[in-house]
Design goal:
The protein has 393 residues and is of the alpha+beta class. The protein is built from 9 helices and 20 strands.
């Protein structure tokens, strides 16, 4: 990582582009555009403006006159910093501690943006790329990608290529698939009233306990669902598997008020072979049985449906990328699939074979406090992308 890379990373990390507030998107896209142009890339901006909020998508192209084009997918939105007091370094300042760099989004996904642009910069300078590159740098990934990569692929721009690399993954393996996501909310319905008269009202918190206990059985149901795609190294199972987690609980307003409702938010991870519509129906059916068993009144709302995806590991581009990563990083580095979801499904849904590789180490505290990027992982991703482009004939 040279001084140019660090300046670039510093400028975009110090812009708070969290996906909840959706601020600084234009400013961040402007910085990315400037560095892409410095790298010798042709830049186009496609703004998927929604609710009067600008959401510029940057498309930066290295055209070497090749027959085939590879799409590199990254995102500049980040999850909120959360409890800023819990950070030991400022979340929206790049803290350089030699082998590690700290800041929100430093690895998910702004470090990957810089690695990809820097790789394209070297290729443009040397003139050694055997493929055209299109870097797709978007917002909206952390909340589904509708106004980001989805817009570029399925909206008016209709960006296309022969292969896609989602530079939004880990350095321990080359990924050829990712989990689907189904998120939702279960609302337990009681009756609000004065806490001095608990016998007269139905406490939604109390009612939710037996229902939650029943829903915990769905964790075991999902665990038995197994994919043909291998799980990442260090996983408890050999192949990807289904997962269900209850992640947020909200109820009550004051200590002297019996709560009338309790909301339980859940996250369900799908294997690539599953259809979110089918799993939504399955959850609805399981909840209905839990309601019958407990006598609790509850309703279900599905808030997000994202397809998982998978590609053929024998695809020539995947083989070339895997070979490049093994040459640069580790000859024994495996092919796996991601436990998390990402934007790769937008590529595979239109027939573009896709793989993932990136800087997001499992212990890098991405989405957590003190998110960090290992400089060695940055250098590996950058070098692997250069090697791939130079040998992908």
């Amino acid at each position: 990582m040279d001084d140019w890379d660090k300046r670039f990373l510093k400028e975009i990390v110090e812009l708070d582009t969290n996906s909840e507030e959706k601020k600084n998107y234009t400013e961040c896209a402007d910085v990315i555009t400037r560095y892409c142009e410095e790298a010798g890339l042709k830049v186009e901006i496609f703004d998927s403006k929604h609710d009067d909020i600008p959401q510029p998508n940057v498309v930066a192209t290295l055209d070497v006159g090749a027959k085939e084009t590879v799409l590199l997918c990254m995102h500049y939105d980040v999850v909120p910093a959360g409890d800023a007091e819990g950070w030991t370094r400022p979340p929206f300042k790049l803290t350089d501690e030699g082998e590690k760099l700290y800041g929100r989004g430093v690895t998910d996904n702004k470090g990957n943006i810089v690695a990809a642009v820097s790789a394209a910069k070297e290729l443009a300078k040397k003139g050694t790329s055997k493929i055209n590159l299109k870097l797709l740098l978007s917002p909206n990934e952390e909340i589904g990608g509708v106004y980001g990569i989805d817009y570029l692929i399925n909206g008016p721009p209709k960006v296309r290529g022969e292969f896609g690399i989602v530079v939004d993954s880990g350095p321990e393996y080359v990924s050829i698939g990712a989990s689907g996501v189904l998120a939702g909310k279960i609302t337990v319905h009681g009756q609000q009233g004065h806490a001095g008269y608990p016998f007269a009202f139905a406490n939604a918190i109390h009612l939710s306990i037996p229902l939650l206990d029943c829903m915990l059985d769905y964790v075991d149901v999902r665990r038995k669902v197994t994919s043909e795609y291998p799980a990442p190294p260090g996983s408890p199972y050999e192949n990807l598997w289904g997962r269900f987690s209850m992640t947020v609980y909200k109820a009550g307003s004051k200590s002297n008020v019996i709560p009338g409702t309790a909301d339980i938010t859940f996250d369900c991870r799908l294997i690539p072979e599953e259809d979110p519509e089918d799993i939504a129906k399955d959850i609805e059916s399981f909840l209905e049985k839990a309601k019958e068993e407990t006598g609790v009144d509850a309703s279900l709302e599905i808030t997000m449906k994202v397809h998982g995806w998978g590609s053929d590991k024998e695809d020539k581009f995947i083989q070339a990328l895997h070979a490049a990563v093994k040459e640069v990083v580790d000859p024994d580095l495996p092919i796996s699939a991601d436990l998390g979801g990402n934007d790769g499904h937008f590529f595979t849904s239109v027939g573009i074979p896709t793989a993932c590789y990136g800087t997001i180490a499992t212990d890098g505290s991405f989405h957590g406090l003190d998110e960090w990027l290992a400089v060695k992982d940055f250098d590996s991703v950058r070098a692997a992308l250069v090697c791939f482009a130079e040998k992908c004939d």
